[in-house]
Every structure is written in structure tokens, then in C-alpha cells.
Write a structure and sequence with these properties.
By secondary structure, this protein is mainly β. It has one domain. Helices cover 6% and strands 43% of the residues. It has a four-stranded antiparallel sheet. It has a two-stranded antiparallel ribbon with strand order 1-6. Strands 2-3 form a two-stranded antiparallel ribbon. β2 and β3 form a beta hairpin. The protein is globular, with a radius of gyration of 13 Å.
Length: 102
């Protein structure tokens, strides 16, 4: 099993202070927090990441856990369909890592 994989994806919607995230699953037993930046103008990202369990792909600055135990994020104003906002960064994280950082 490889120690890392390439994750490719597209941020579906980002507007105001909310967004609709993407789910990404990587296979291993070492989940790690990964900061991925920047997105391109279409909100696309590509990055080698450590292998791990299921990661929640969202944007800039963690806030709280949702009902499933995943970290939800909020960002400032960003227009993904136009040009990428300076605040538009992607985080891959999970509940265990969130708890380690709080």
C-alpha cells in the first residue's frame, strides 16, 4: 500500500461564509491533518497527501464538529467561479486530528 496518494477534486460551491464540501477517502491507518493550497481559479486542487482514513475536504479555518464528528469550516467571501480568493485554502482533516489540536 502506498504511503501517499494524489487527491484531485473540485470545490463545488463557496459563497458568503458557507460551502458545500467534498468527501475524499484514502486508505491507511495514519490519518493526518493536511493543509492544501492554493486552489486554482476553478476551485480545483491537487496534492500528494499522507494516506489515512476518510478525510473531510473543506476550506479555511476550522470551527466545530458536525453531527458525524467531522470538522466543519467557514471562510470569508470567495467567488470560485471567478478568481480564487486569497482566503480560499483547502484542509483535509478528521476528528482525531481536530481533537489533538484543541
Amino acid at each position: 500500500m502506498p504511503s501517499s496518494i494524489v487527491i484531485r477534486g473540485t470545490v463545488l460551491r463557496i459563497y458568503g461564509s458557507s460551502h458545500e464540501p467534498i468527501w475524499v477517502t484514502v486508505e491507511s491507518d495514519q490519518p493526518r491533518y493536511v493543509h492544501v493550497l492554493p486552489c486554482d481559479e476553478g476551485g480545483n486542487f491537487e496534492r500528494l497527501v499522507p494516506a489515512g482514513r476518510s478525510y473531510f475536504v473543506t476550506a479555511h479555518s476550522y470551527e466545530s464538529l458536525d453531527r458525524e464528528g467531522w470538522v466543519r469550516h467557514r471562510i470569508g467571501r470567495a467567488e470560485v467561479a471567478g478568481e480564487a480568493d486569497a482566503q480560499l485554502h483547502i484542509f483535509l482533516t478528521d476528528q482525531e486530528e481536530f481533537e489533538d489540536r484543541t
